[in-house]
Amino acid sequence: MISLAALILFSLTSFSNCKEYTFPDNFKFGVATSAYQVEGAWNVGGKGENIWDYMTHTNPSSILDKSNGDIACDSYNKIKEDVQLLKNLGVDFYRFSISWSRILPSGKTEYINPDGIRYYNELIDELLANNIEPLVTMHHFDLPQPLEEEGGFLNLAIADYFEDYADVLYKNFGDRVKEWTTFNEPTPVCFLGYSGEFLAPMITRKDGGYLCGRTLLIAHAKAYHLYNKRYRASQKGRIGIVHNIFWFEPRTNSIKDLQAAEAANEFNFGWFANPIFSKEGDYPQIMKGSIEYASKQEGLPKSRLPELTQEEIELIKGSADFLGINHYTTFYCSPIEEEGIGKGLFYLPDMDANCVMDEKADGSASFWLKVIPSGFRNSLNWIKEQYNNPEEQYNNPEVIILENGISDDGNLLNDCLRVNYNNLYLTEMLKAIHEDGCNVSGYAAWSFMDNFEWTSGYTQKFGLYSVDFDDPARPRTPKMSAFVFKNIIQERKINWTYTPEGFGKCDGPKLKDEL
Ligand code: GBH
To answer: In the chain, how many domains are there?
Structure first.
């Protein structure tokens, strides 16, 4: 009894003692989407076919509910309506992606599709007319199918086609777009698409991920240098990249688990961040070493991780003005041979880490996504420490959160799960800013609206707005989380007691480690 009372008292006092941090004055808020997930109009106005059009049409069973993005949220036809919703939310910026195939149907500049240019011009102009900054991603999982037929990211030539594509984007939109990101989430693109069956094009080559990674880093760097050479002086924008950062914790305090977690952080995040943001450039040492070792064991003549030449290392190093990150969740790692734990979701022989979810943590509609807010702060601190080079260009690099959010099955407008997740994660981010000195300048919630969730189809909903996919008009309805996000932007702090009119009160967070 006494302990229970003490526990309640303790939680109450610790809750009310919690410092109320505000968002810095120049901190920017946004929401995010990506082209294939929301646009629809897959073959309208001269758009070409991309790898998701191709895969969903030729192999419908690759998608959980056999659906596709043919119509999705029909955002292609809803510029005005969607921008009004954004304006209503009060966001400073909108993160969206441009469909490469809508601009260049064959993937190459031999033909520039006028309707593609028109569509994005209208979207950008409408955003600016409503005081919302466009933050544009050039590639969000949707490579043109004709380029895939030339080997996709396994073919280094794709880096040149990407540079040509970036040139078209800068030329047509760079007068108004000032924040660019080249690629969304290289690690999933490469690991899950070229060494796994989780994203298109579902190629399962053991060296596929690493080959893809090299092409992608070089493509990114070429697009960055092109901007410097031809556009920066006149357009005065910035070029970044978006990395996925899951957080990997050691499962116990043992040295072995600590090493496994560190390896997982380097394999997932360092793989693409180290070459760009570290002082030395190149892949993380631990990655090079362990892949070389594993390759030797397999009797291969050389490492499955293709070496970057000194010239490539220099080309890639420093090739970003800011670091975009997507953060969702945390895993717990041990070495692979550890007894007693099943094969985790993040299990890679090369890195010798087996990373599992905390099954006791609050979950979501996505089996890979649990509510573990502390991992957000840990990720931001890891970035700060890892890429802190006082004498270099990157001293505590500027980070913009470009995705963070949670899924449910979409039936609830009273989405307390999302409200609590956002409040908890934003609180950790505020601690990282105010207590740890992490350099975070903006935050975009994933997602603006429910959309096509890749191989999960329409079974997982991440939106602040719900979309009725059974209605041809695809009406959007704000969930409680939309109102709460709007209130956060207005009040510039987390207000745990705010309940928007017409919604039921949320119980508030029930975090396992606080109980
Ligand atoms: C982000 O990736 C994407 O950028 C965004 O487009 C997406 O909508 C959002 O997450 C929510 O998922 O079911 O085993 O195939 C986050 C990293 C990579 C996590 C793909 C889920 C698929 C796991 N994601 N992964 S599986």
So the answer is: 1
